[in-house]
Write a structure and sequence with these properties.
The protein has 431 residues and is mainly alpha-helical. It has helices spanning 36-40, 76-82, 85-94, 100-112, 118-123, 133-143, 157-183, 196-205, 216-229, 236-245, 251-262, 270-281, 287-295, 316-331, 338-352, 354-358, 365-375, 383-403; strands spanning 4-8, 17-22, 30-31, 60-63, 68-71, 74-75. Helices cover 50% and strands 5% of the residues. The strands form 2 sheets. Strands 1-2-3 form a 3-stranded antiparallel sheet, with no helix packed on it. Bound molecules: s-citryldethia Coenzyme A (SDX).
Length: 431
């Protein structure tokens, strides 16, 4: 197919720039500027990478205007309805839906890796009782590079495969250990007769004194939430994993970097911030006051769980989670949850407000998810950890795609320098 080009006139230059336009399978075309500096001594400028495609990827597609989210081409709505998190993990990792045998083998492999090295478990004793679970999660995942030396060779396909299965399997165990540490209860080992989400609930809520029955509704809700959180294109934490991994560092350290990025309240930390915001708002009569705060340029307060860099329409995941909220709360016998009612009222008022409509600010994935987690008995400080469990599949899939891409090079952006020009040192007695 003939190549497409665009011409860009540059002031004080006679010849226009000619840059190739590349078309993907879905989504906007891109202007290839990879040789722009080398051939024209020019940088592009795009703080926050609002208009920048940092890589080529086959994993996830988002259309922010139409509210479309596809995992390897499959609409997230269909996967949420008919698939399971482990099957979606296989799809994101390998690119195709597995047949029955492939899924069984994959699931069995994941189950074999659920336990932690006992030395890693002892690391939890070093944390204060009130350490934030995300601090523990990033530290323990980073420590995996000190334990699992057999999967540090990024050039070995076998090592990459074991790493992928190992970290997906261990995230729930690490999350549960962080939770048990924070509530002063003994760690509960995984039970491999249970499925992925049942095992997580077992490790969270069982105690040595009694085996707790697993709530099937809770397991179903978690499985859905993990599917919806599994991947989201080049979001902040995934881009962080790609950037860290591009230096050739071991995969555990790259994932630990992603966990740190996810923790921010502008990103995955928003689900925890939404619950705290709803509790602070307290009652419906305070909603208008907080909507005004969110609109006030001089007030740093933002409506947490609202707005998105890509979705300028309703986040398709938020729609599904909102429905699941009602189902979980009805089955938990707390259908009239004041928090959910407050969230629904807040959403209705915000979506009628010109400020939110003009800026295309809609509820995102984080707006309702915390209400479900809370209904399942998971504390607010653990919400972003739950997000990380689902997103680890996406991080690993993107890391593998980046590592195995022959065009990958170390990520090293440039800058627009606005600092002082060259000047000479002045001795302290002359300052
Ligand atoms: C996630 O990227 C992903 O895919 C992320 C994610 C994933 O799955 O990985 O989807 C998960 O991180 C969801 C987002 C969770 N964060 C929050 O809910 C925090 C609250 N939202 C915002 O901070 C904000 O909306 C962002 C960070 C999500 C997006 O910010 P952008 O794209 O950089 O947009 P912006 O900050 O430039 O906002 C545009 C305008 C600004 O006003 P002006 O300066 O143009 O006058 O909208 C305003 C903002 O002030 N605005 C808000 C707002 N979000 C944006 N005003 C009030 N409340 C908000 N929530």
């Amino acid at each position: 197919m003939d190549k497409k080009y665009c011409k860009i006139e540059i002031c004080d230059r006679t010849d226009p720039l000619e840059l190739e336009i590349i078309t993907g399978n879905l989504g906007p075309d891109v202007i290839d500027i990879s040789n722009l500096y080398q051939e024209n001594s020019l940088f592009t400028y795009d703080p926050g990478f609002v208009s920048t495609a940092s890589c080529q990827s086959n994993i996830t597609f988002i259309d922010g205007d139409k509210g479309i989210l596809l995992y390897r081409g499959y609409p997230v709505e269909e996967l949420a309805k008919s698939s399971t998190f482990i099957e979606v993990a296989y799809l994101l990792l390998y690119g195709e839906l597995p047949n029955k045998n492939m899924l069984e083998d994959f699931s069995d492999s994941i189950i074999q890796h659920t336990m932690l090295n006992e030395g890693m478990l002892r690391l939890f004793n070093g944390f204060r009782y009130d350490a934030h679970p995300m601090a523990m999660l990033s530290a323990i995942v980073g420590s995996m590079s000190a334990y699992y030396h057999d999967t540090m060779d990024i050039n070995s396909a076998r090592a990459r495969e074991i790493f992928a299965h190992r970290i997906i399997a261990k995230l729930p165990t690490i999350a549960a250990a962080a939770y048990k540490h924070s509530v002063g209860q003994p760690f509960v080992y995984p039970l491999n007769t249970l499925n992925y989400c049942e095992n997580l609930l077992h490790m969270f809520f069982s105690v040595p004194a009694e085996q707790r029955d697993i709530d099937p509704i809770a397991a179903e809700a978690l499985d859905l939430l993990f599917i919806l959180h599994a991947d989201h294109e080049q979001n902040c934490s995934t881009s962080t994993v790609r950037m860290a991994g591009s230096s050739g560092t071991n995969p555990y350290s790259a994932i630990a970097a992603g966990i740190s990025a996810l923790w921010g309240p502008a990103h995955g930390g928003a689900n925890e911030a939404v619950l705290r915001m709803l509790v602070e708002i307290g009652t419906k009569k305070n909603i208008e006051k907080y909507i005004d705060k969110a609109k006030d340029k001089d007030d740093p307060f933002r409506l947490m769980g609202f707005g998105h860099r890509v979705y300028k329409n309703y986040d398709p995941r938020a729609k599904i989670i909102r429905k699941m909220c009602h189902k979980v709360l009805n089955q938990k016998g707390s259908a009239d949850s004041p928090l959910l009612e407050l969230a629904i009222e807040l959403e209705e008022i915000a979506l009628k407000d010109d400020y939110f409509r003009e800026k295309n600010l809609y509820p995102n994935v984080d707006f309702y998810s915390g209400i479900i987690y809370q209904a399942l008995g998971i504390p607010t400080s653990m919400f972003t950890v739950m997000f990380a469990i689902g997103r680890t599949v996406g991080w690993v899939s993107h890391w593998r795609e980046m590592i195995t891409d022959p065009n990958t090079k170390i990520s090293r952006p440039r800058q627009l320098y606005t600092g002082p020009e060259k000047r000479n040192y002045i001795s302290i007695d002359k300052r």
